[in-house]
Amino acid sequence: MAGPAFAGEVRGRVTDRADGSPLAGVNLRLAGTRLGAVSDSAGAYLIPNVPAGTYRLQASMIGYRTATVEDLALRSDTALRQDVALRADAIPLNEMVVTPGRFSVIQSDPVTSQTLSREEVRAMPQFGEDIFRAIVRLPGVSGSDFSARFNVRGGDYDQILVTLDGLELDEPFHLKDIAGGSVSIVDVEVIGGIDMMTGGFPAAYGDRQSAALEMTSRRPHPGHRTSAGLGLMHARVLSEGGTEGFSWLMSARRGYIDLVLKMIGEEENLSPDFYDLFGKLTFGKRPEDRFSLEVLGSSDRLRFKEKDASDTFNSRYGNGYAWFTWDATRGSRLHARTLSYAGRITRRRDGATFQVPASVIEEIVDDHRRTDVYGIKSDWTAQAGPSHLLNFGFEARALRADYAYFKRDRNVVQVSQNTRQVRYDTTRADLEVSGGRVSLYAGDRWRIAGPLTADAGLRYDRHSYTGEGRVSPRAGLALALGSETVVRAAWGQYYQAQGIGDLDVQEGVTAFRRAAMATHSVAGVERRIGPGLEARVEGYYKRYRHIRDRFENLQDDVTFVPEIEDDRIHLFPEAGTARGIEVYLKRDAGGRLSWWTAYAYAVTRETYDVLQSPVEIRGRELPRRFDQPHTFSIDMIFRPSPAWHLSAAWQIRSGWPFSPQRLVQVTAPDGSRFFTTQWDPQYERYPPFHRLDVKAGRQFTFRRWRLSAALEVVNLYNRRNVRGYDYFFRVQGGAVSLNREAATWLPILPSLTVSAEF
Questions:
Q1: How far apart are CA 741 and CA 726, in angstroms?
Q2: What per-residue string of b and e applies to 198-229 under the rule 16 or more CB within 10 Å gives b?
Q3: Per-residue confidence at 307, pLDDT binned at 50, 70, 90?
Q4: 540 near 521, Cβ under 8 Å?
Q5: Given 3-state DSSP classes, what are the helix, strand and coil percentages for the chain, each rounded to the nearest 5?
Q6: Between the CA of residue 639 and those of 379, 447, 646, 696, 699, what are the distances in Å?
Q7: Are 500 and 435 in contact (CB under 8 A)?
Q8: Residue 344 burial by Cβ neighbours in a 10 Å radius (0-12, 13-18, 19+)
Q9: The three-state (H, E, C) secondary structure of 425-479, written as one string
Q10: How, if at all, do strands 115-116 and 102-105 pair?
C-alpha cells in the first residue's frame, strides 16, 4: 500500500497587471485537486504539501480576468515560486449574477462566491450520499431525516422547479411512500454543477412558486474512468470517458434501505428497494454544434406486512425520461440550446387493512396512475451590443394522465358506550385527461452603468387542461460597490398551475383548481470581508394568493395510505405569507481548515377560509407544518493532509408545529357518556431539533487506481429529536387521562462508505 508522495510547496505573489499593486483575496487552485490558497494583504500565497507532478494553476477574483499557468512541474522535496499578474476586467454580462438567493454547488463559479465545491460536498457528512440532503445545509432550505424532499422559504417541495441538463423532472424521488421520497433518483456522482435559486429567479424559469434547482451533468474525463462505490443506502457503478468528438457518462445504482431500517429498529417486515440508471452520449465534430442523447430511469418497490398479517401494502413507482439536445454556438454573440424529450411517471399502490381476528376488510385501496409527457424546448441567448444580453425561448408540452382509483372504507361509528354502527364509504375514479402547456419568455440583462446591471423579463404560460393563461413579470438589479461588495434586489410574480397528474381523486376530486400565485420581494448584500472570508445577508417577503385547498394528515407519522386515516382533514387557506432574514458566512483560505455557517429567521403563515375550513381554525392565521422560526448551522472540514479529511456538521432549529390529540367526553344519543380522543387542528410545537454528524475520510493512491473510504456517524450524541407522538389512555383511581409517547427521528447511526476509481 503506497501513499502519496509530498513534494513541498507552491508559493508566490499576486499583483495587478496595470500598476503592480498587491491583490488580496485572490483564489488560487491547482486544477483537479483539493489544493489551493488565498492571497493575503501583501498579495502573497502559499500552497503546502503538494505531491510531485505537473499541474495547472488558476487564479481568480471578482473584477479580474481568471489567469491560468499551464504545465507547472514540481519535483520531490522542492519549493516552486510562481508569481501571477491579473488584468482588471468587468464581469461579462453572461456571467453577471443579478438574482439574489443564488447558490452554486459542485461547480466553479467566478461570480457567486458562496459555493460548495465537489470536494466539500464529498467531505461533509450527508446521510445517504444524496445531493438533495446536502442542499438542506443552505440557508432558507429545510427538510427531515426521512426524506430527500425539502422546502424553500415557506414553500412546499412541489413548488420547486427541478431540471437536469435543461429537462424538467417531475417527482424525482425513490420510495415516495416514505415521507414523500427518501432518496433522489439522480446520483450525486453524475452531477457536474447545481444552481439553486431560492427566490426572485428570472423569467426563464416558470410554472413554480418558490425556487428553482438547476442541475447539469458532469463533463466526462478524457480517456476512460470507472468508479464503484458502496454506501449506507445504495451501491453504485459509474463509467465515463471519451475522445475529442465523442464522450459518454453512465451510472447505475441499487438501493437497500431495508437494511438501514433494521439497523434503526423500524418494522422488519418493511422491504423497500430501488434502482436507477443515467446515461449520456455527447458527440459532434465541430465545437459550434454539439449533440447529446440522455436517458434517466428509476424504479422502486415497497412491500409491507404487519407481523400479525392485519395490514398489507405494496407499491411500485417508475420515472423514465429520454431527451436529445442540440447546443449551437454562432460566433461569440449567439447560443441556442434545443431539447426534444419524452417522459413517463407511473404509480401503483395496493393496500388493505383487516380487523383481527374476524378478518373482515376495513379499508382497501387500489390506485394506478400514469402521466406521459412529450415536448420540445428551446432557449436562446444573444449579445446585443456591449450593454445588452437578450434571452428568450419557448416550450411546448403534450400531456396525458390516466387515473384508475378505488377505495372502500369500513368505518365504525360509536353511537353509545356499548353500541357501534358500521358505515361503508366507496370512492372510485376512472379518468383520462389530456392537454398541453405552452410557455414563452423574453428578458434583457442590461448593464445600465459600470457597477449597475438590471435584468427584466416577461413570461407567459398557458395550460389547455385548466383553460388558463398567465403573464408573469420579473425584474432584478445588481449594484457593485467596489470589488468587495454586491447589492442585489429582485421582484416578480410566479404562477403555478396544478399538474395534470396531481388530481386528488383519492378524495373524490376530479376538477382542476386555478393556478396559485406568489409575489417575491427579495434584497441582499454579498461582501468579501477579508482573504477567504465571504458573507451574505438577505431578506425576503413572499405573498401567496389563490392558494389551492389541500388535504393533510394531522399526525406526523409515516403512513402509506394517508387518505384512509382518521386524522385526515380538508384545509382551505385563502392567503399566506412567508418572510425572513438569512445570514451566510464562509471561510475558505485554501488551508487545512474551511468552514461555513448560516442563520435563518423565517415565519410562514396561512389564513384559513371562514366558511369551509375546520371550525377551530376558521379565519385564523396559523403557521405551516414545516415552519421553523430559527435555524442555525455550522459545517467544518479539516484536512490534515491531502489524503485525509475530517468534517463535522451541527444544526439546531425550532421544533415544527404539530396538532395534538385532546381527551374529550362525548354524550351519545341514548344519553350515555364515554371518553374518546379528538385531533385539534390548532398547533403546538415540538421541542427544538439539534444534531451533530461527523465524518472521517481517507484516500489511498496506488499506481493504477485510487481507493477512498469514509466513516460517518449520524447523530453522534444520540439526540432523541421528536417527530411525533403516539397517544394512549390511562385509567388510575377511576380517572381517565390521555398520555403520549414520543416517536423520534434518526438515532445514532454509523456507516462506512467505500469507493474505488480505475
A1: 5
A2: bbbbbbbbbbbbbbbbbbbbbebeeeeeebeb
A3: low
A4: yes
A5: 5, 60, 35
A6: 42, 41, 6, 10, 12
A7: yes
A8: middle
A9: EEEEEEEEEEEEEEEEEEEEEEECCCCEEEEEEEEEEEECCCCEEEEEEEEEEEE
A10: parallel
Measured CA to CA, the distance from residue 114 to residue 201 in angstroms comes to 17
Cα distances from 249 to residues 224, 246, 452, in angstroms, run 10, 11, 40
Grid coordinates 433518483 are at which residue? 185
Q: Which amino acid is at 758?
A: F
Residues forming beta bridges with residue 29, ordered by sequence position: 36, 58
Cell of 56: 495547472
345-387 residue pLDDT tens: 999 999 887 765 554 567 889 999 999 999 999 999 998 888 8
Q: Please give the mean pLDDT across all residues of the chain.
A: 86
Q: pTM of the prediction? A: 0.86
Please, is 379 exposed, middle or buried when counting C-beta atoms within 10 Å of its C-beta (0-12, 13-18, 19+)?
middle
**Listed residue (81, 114, 90, 95) closest to 14, CA to CA:** 81
Cα-trace Rg, the chain: 28
The torsion angle over the Cα atoms of residues 62, 65, 66 and 69, rounded to 10 degrees, is: -140
525 is written with which cell numbers?
448584500
Question: What residues contact 320, with CB distance under 8 A and at least 6 apart?
Answer: 295, 296, 297, 298, 343, 344, 345
687: preceding bond cis by omega (within 30 degrees):
no
d(CA 639, CA 644): 6
How many CB atoms within 10 Å of residue 73?
Answer: 10
Q: Tell me what pLDDT residue 90 has.
A: 58
